[in-house]
Amino acid sequence: MRYYPMFVSLEGRACLVVGAGQVGLRKIETLADCGAASVLVVDKNPPDEALGQLLARPGLRSRLRFAQRDIEEADLEGMFLAIASTSSPAVNQRISELCRERGVLCNIVDQPEACSFIVPALVRRGDLTLAISTGGQSPALAKRIRKDLQETYGREYALFLELMGRLRPLVLGLGQETGANTEIFRNLVGSRLLEALKRGDAALARAELAAHLPSDLAPDRAPQLHGQLDTLITEILHGPA
What H or E segment, with its residue span, contains residue 39? Predict the structure, then answer.
């Protein structure tokens, strides 16, 4: 099957996870970290230590609910998506059928034929997310490719995006034409800025920014901005002073 790739916002969405074993725990944590408004966790067994710590984590306690029981049809009401990771194929299949009847997106772990969506292997570097899918045909290959990507795309990509997140509104705020802005951002991506961040070379990072930013944002015309950038670069590379 050919899947339609997309990244979906979970903001304001309710999610369900049935089965809180090792795999289920990873799903719960990922849903919460990606901003799900609420995650209902259903499992017949009491929470183990890892799940207990997750349920008690500050910032998550108000969004995670645990129910020690079997899945009930009412659990699916109002859900945006559901993930089933129980050890029972029959229970997982029943959850798939209930989701299909209600139009709820459904992922059944290790049963791609019963899913309406599958979860790709992921590599995360800050706001950079790389997703790898083999259409459910070879999770082992997806993991191999993920390992290769983890070695290729290091922490410097997260740092680069953090810096671009600060610069982008400043460049757009100059009111230039779209083509001019596109050229600036392409030049920054093609510059030695990534290299500077990988090496922890603040002087080179400053030099690359000075060379590629518009004249209105040059150090001599916007000293306050570059003072802020100097502080940001230092914090990005070495942490707050």
Answer: strand 38-43
